[in-house]
Design goal:
The protein is α+β, with helices and mostly antiparallel strands and about 120 residues long. It is built from 3 helices and 5 strands, in the order ββαβααββ. Helix content is about 25%, strand content about 35%. The radius of gyration is 15 Å and the shape is elongated. Strands 3-1-2-4-5 form a 5-stranded mixed sheet.
Length: about 120
């Protein structure tokens, strides 16, 4: 199996409103997110790629226009935009464009990350 990955960066705020009172994540806060997109394939195309890395700039454009410097609860009209939930949203967006999409990992701090891998 061949695997490739590319990182993307954005900054955004969110608030997790369904947590118990006093939980720090109920407060409005933000992160400098690192998104890692992984693609996998048993075969390569005629140029020797799974997907040309240049094609993945579409994800950068979507992140920059949709997520970067936004309040994620407003973007998705959702009360709890967790990192886990966001992984699935980005995975689905990518899977519609690149059938080789195998996982999306998002790091929200240097010590905390989540991943969606079906």
């Amino acid at each position: 199996m061949y695997r490739i990955g590319k990182e993307f960066y954005f900054s955004a705020s969110h608030q997790l409103t369904d947590l118990p009172e006093g939980h720090p994540c109920t407060q409005l806060h933000g992160h400098n997110y690192i998104v890692t997109l992984e693609l996998a394939s048993e075969t390569l195309d005629k140029t020797g790629f799974i997907v040309d890395f240049k094609e993945l700039n579409a994800l950068k454009d979507w992140i920059d226009g949709t997520l970067d410097h936004k309040h994620l609860n407003d973007v998705f009209d959702h009360p709890n935009v967790t990192t886990e939930w966001l992984c699935k949203v980005i995975y689905d967006w990518c899977k519609e464009r690149w059938h080789q999409t195998s996982a999306v990992k998002i790091q929200e701090t240097p010590k905390i990350w989540a991943e969606y891998r079906p």
